[in-house]
Amino acid sequence: MKVLVAVKRVVDYNVKVRVKADGTGVDLANVKMSMNPFDEIGVEEAVRLKEAGKATEVIVVSIGPAQAQETLRTALAMGADRGILIKTDAEVQPLAVAKLLKAVCDAEQPGLVITGKQAIDDDSNQTGQMLAALWGRPQATFANKLFIEGDKAKVVREIDGGLQTVEIDLPAVLTTDLRLNEPRYASLPNIMKAKKKPIDEKTPESLGVDIASRLKVLKVAEPPKRVAGVKVPDVATLVQKLKTEAGVI
Amino acid sequence: MDFSFSEEQQMVAQTVRDLLTDQCSSADLRKMMTAGEGLDEARWTKLCEMGLPGIMAPEEAGGLALKDEDFVLVAEECGRAALPEPLVEHAGIAVPMLAALIDNPAVRKVLEAAATGEGRVAVGHPANLFVDAADTAAALLLWHNDEVHLVSVDDVKLVRQPSIDSFRRLFRVEWMPSAKTKVADAAKGKALWALALDRGALYAAAQCLGMGQRIVEIAVAYAKDRTQFGKAIGSYQAIKHHLANCQVKIEYARPAVYAAAATIETPGPEVRALVSNAKLSAVEAADFAARTGVQVHGAMGYSWEVDVHFFLKRALGLAGAWGDRNMHLARVADCVLNSGMPLGPAATFPGGTAHAR
Fold it and tell me: Which pTM does this prediction carry?
């Protein structure tokens, strides 16, 4: 079984992002970029499936500019077998990503597609679900545990207030949640091997996908700054303020 | 001529940085400092899983056979994190020294364990008064009249010595050299100890480079956050110019360290001078950054509340390790004044390599 993992190049989670002065987006100049953490969990799960003998090949795919190749190399260093870079400098929204991944699925015929539940840049949480719909295959989102049993997958999902276990037929789409696994650090031998692993380059045009934007970003703004607190002389004043000013009791 | 590090070298450094950011945080260091520990076995295991102990071991001993220019960035990251574990001395100095003696079956056995990280090896070099991390080593490489002796830690007596840096666990080693422990005679040993000294100085410099950079980052973050008279203190020239000077010193030291790493195995006084120049400039940059970092933090700069002290103490410790300032200045002076070293732009690179092609 082939496992296809989608990996997105995003602003590193340690970076404190700044909104551009004109409010059109986030300033990406000289900002450290990394693999979306949920996608990293996806790569780790796929590599574990291969190590357990459940998968035969792990293919990682990324959509973005030429620098997205670095993200693919990171995934290859973690243990993926080969990469596919769908090269574009344009903004690619979730529906277009899902269509591109569907085209890759048609070509590669994977038994399982893993995506992060969301990317930490736009927090859309749409791609996996859209891909399942376009591909016409089952989906199991927010995966906390995954068990492959023949041509079925048992998935423990994280839901509000608990866990839900579902069984789905393969091929299927899985989206990862935070607790599915703890991604490994690439080992030095794998980093050395990663350079030799193949990365195929494609374009949206070569896959016959129109990636034109369907959504228009009107404004991007920073969260309001937290106002300074005040010291109150006693409990009675605190209760009074909570009642009259904050209105929470 | 391309002086930049390869994609793999940068990825190795980035992966080490990610691991140490996660596993060697300020909170981790404080926990160890409170407990009086010098080694975290869980973190060492993670370093071993990455393959770092054997990075410079030959492939036949289970290593990766990488070079000093590959390890220099790793050492820099170790300095940046003030890593307590003796990875730099083990992987960057002891393992290459063992690798040079791999024909000896006893050495090979120790090297194979060292490459996986299962058996740590400490180095007792005559340039250092004491042996760092000897208590957690399985074996020690010890100097005796230029001979190299490989001694099990069980066969020596270790006497703990005080260190300004609580993570550098220094020991005086009491031992008896014997024919059984000798793995290289004086003729061969002399060259090995000389190269070990150069590697020690180089990797102390690389760590200082990482430490200096980290201190600047900590101080800049504080200067952006702390306000006085309604403005961030970093906006005042009295702060920002000092921090800019720190960065300038780091940027001047950086190529000196990388050049030494790229040429360290080349014989001749010019390369020895390059190594000494790297140590001198990187120690100076780290020392200046540490002193400035303390001042930027104001009255609490010297206290344990601020992380700068971890780096300040390590920098002070490393300044005197693997040759002090006087020793390295003398090597540079000797090279320039007495060795007939070719000077001028045509001799920028050792061996007369053309400046540009």
Answer: 0.87
Interface pTM, i.e. ipTM: 0.81
Residues 157-196, chain A, touching B (beta carbon < 8 A): 184-189, 191-192, 194-195
Tens-place pLDDT, residues B104-139? 999 999 999 999 999 999 999 999 999 999 999 999
Tokens representing residue B294 in the block: 């303390």
Nearest CA in chain B to A33: B14
Is B15 in Cβ contact with A186 (below 8 Å)? yes
Tens digit of each residue's pLDDT (9 = 90 or more) over A56-94 = 999 999 999 999 999 999 999 999 999 999 999 999 999
Give the residue extent of every domain in chain B. 198-355
Contacts of A81 (CB under 8 A, 6+ apart): A50, A57, A58, A59, A197
Residue B157 pairs in a beta bridge with B174
Asked if the C-beta of B154 comes within 8 angstroms of chain A's C-beta atoms, the answer is no
With beta carbons under 8 A apart, name residues in chain A contacting B11.
Answer: 73-74, 77, 186, 191, 194
Q: Report residue B5 as tokens.
A: 């590090």
Cβ-based burial of A245 (10 A; exposed 0-12, middle 13-18, buried ≥19): exposed
| Contact flag A194-B8 (C-beta cutoff 8 Å) | yes
Is the Cβ–Cβ distance between B51 and A188 less than 8 Å? yes
What fold, for B198-355?
Butyryl-CoA Dehydrogenase, subunit A; domain 3 (1.20.140)
Backbone angles phi, psi at A233, to 5 degrees: -70, -30
